[in-house]
Amino acid sequence: MEHIHGPEMSNEQLADYAPRIEALAKDRGLSFYPVDFELVPATFMMEVAVYGLPVRMPHWSFGVRYIYQYVQHRMGHSKIFEVVFPGNPNRAYLVDDNALPENTLVTAHVLGHADFSRNNQLFARMQHEVGYHIVEQAAARANRIQAAIEDRGQRRVEAVLDAALALESNVDVNQGLNRVDYPVTRERPVRPQAQGFQRHYNQLPGEQPLEPPPAQERVPIPPAPEYDLLWFIARYAPELEDWERDIFLAVREESFYFYPVFACQIMNEGWASYWHARLLREAEFLPHRVYLDAIKTHSDVVRPYAGDDAVSLRVNPYHLGFSMWERIMRDCTLDEALAIRRDEDDFSFIRNFLDEDLAAELELFNYTRRPGAGGEERYIIRDREIDSLRENILSPKFNYGGPRIYVRSMGLDGRLDLAHDHHNDGRGLDVNRSRKVLNYIHRIWRRPVRLETVDHAGDPKMLTPEIGEK
After folding, report:
1. Do 28 and 115 fall within a single domain?
2. Strands (E), 196-283
3. For 314, left (φ over 0), alpha (ψ -120 to 50), or beta?
4. Do 370 and 438 belong to one domain?
5. What is the CATH number of the domain that holds 116?
6. pLDDT digits (tens), the chain, 470 positions
7. Are 40 and 100 part of one and the same domain?
8. 395 and 410, same structural domain?
9. For the chain, which end, N or C, has fewer CB atoms within 10 Å of the first or last residue's CB respectively?
10. Which H/E stretch holds residue 237?
11. Residue 191 lies in a domain
């Protein structure tokens, strides 16, 4: 553990506990890059949680998120214990006025995250592609964007950020961060030899043999459906300036960085929760009172429900992941558990390891909404069928939780045709919100744009930023 910074306070003993917890974690089989801890004020922690990074590109949407988070915090609905950024070193922020037991638990929790991010294949691949110093890289990007604001004006830069951030979920992580442009030409398919009547027709007297077509043909743009809208616009928008392309690529790079956090949330939070509970339980050097108060915090973190009500329809990823890892650790060896941690993401983890018995134990169920008296919706338990249950847990996680939109074609005049993969999404789009995003795109594409989709009722819609739906 590299550093612990912060004011002198009740957490001063953390500097003694932290290296001993780290040594215990390594002794139990965890491996991680160094962790740089810092104790910070709650207001700074809230800003980090909202912006996603300590320093990030300026945009009004982050201010809206901050206000929401602040209200939730003041109403008692939200408490932030830590924020950790994977890298080499990892950077972890702890709230300086949280009690010593809370920050002791958080220290162990962060070590679980650090082990996961170093060893999980998806995290490791993204770290390798994006680089291991995201905090510094994000700060450098923010400085470039601030320079663009000073040079080009707030309004122009904000219009580009509006479009880029509206599309931040529309990346294709299967393609990799560093892509080359499409080839300009490709081999023309060989025309099959004429057969039957056509062969005899070609041999009639006076017929001149046709000139063979060129060996190369132009490649359409895109040559196949393109789901990485940020990359496509950055590379192929007809009139985009270099500073505008830089903003799109900056937003895209940060989306790649955050993707594993989103795609492995249940696994990652469950793994960190399992290990903070185990490390605290086995840390014999902790005073009994510190341990008891830390375990009370653990119970609050991994409670079954994500909301404050006694009954909630939202699954708490900490509770679900913790329960699954407890079951795995009970039934498997440590080496087998480490292999699961290495190879899976939430999609395979839930499908492979959430079974009927555990779902029943956790009281998970599928439900439907029906109108009730007075216009209020009623929630009715439908069934506990395990395959549907798994997919209902995972469905909000596909494609960053956003609709799957792809570039179908780009015309010679620059027209951009987009389409919504609603068959795989299993849902329609909000027409008004979709048109607003199209308006953002049109401002920076500067050519006609249209989107083929369906609405919530499943009715086909062709949306354009100028004339709306057809």
Report:
1. yes
2. 216-218
3. beta
4. no
5. 1.10.390
6. 444 544 433 567 999 999 999 999 999 999 999 999 999 988 888 777 766 777 676 654 544 343 333 433 343 344 677 888 899 999 999 998 899 999 999 999 999 999 999 999 999 999 999 988 888 888 898 889 889 999 999 899 999 999 999 999 999 999 989 999 999 887 776 666 666 656 655 555 655 666 666 777 888 999 999 999 999 999 999 999 999 999 999 999 999 998 999 999 999 999 999 999 999 999 999 999 999 999 999 988 888 765 444 444 578 899 999 999 999 999 999 999 999 999 999 999 999 999 999 999 998 887 766 666 666 666 566 777 899 999 889 988 888 888 999 999 999 999 999 999 998 888 889 899 999 999 999 999 999 999 999 988 889 999 999 654 44
7. yes
8. no
9. C
10. none
11. no
Where is the domain boundary, 400, 416, 438?
400
Whether residue 431 is contained in a domain is answered as: yes
Burial of 286 (0-12, 13-18, 19+ CB in 10 A): buried
SS3 76: coil
Residue 167 and residue 107 share a domain: no
User: What is the β-pairing status of strands 416-420 and 449-454?
Assistant: parallel
As a whole number of angstroms, the distance between CA 266 and CA 268 comes to 6
Helical segments of 60-175, H only: 60-74, 100-119, 121-130, 134-152, 154-166
Burial of 271 (0-12, 13-18, 19+ CB in 10 A): buried
Tell me which DSSP letter residue 315 carries: B
Q: Are residues 386 and 415 in the same domain?
A: no
**What residues form DSSP beta bridges with 37?**
4, 92
Within a domain: 385 = yes
Q: How crowded is residue 423: how many other Cβ atoms within 10 Å of its Cβ?
A: 8
Domain that holds residue 427: 152-178+221-242+403-469
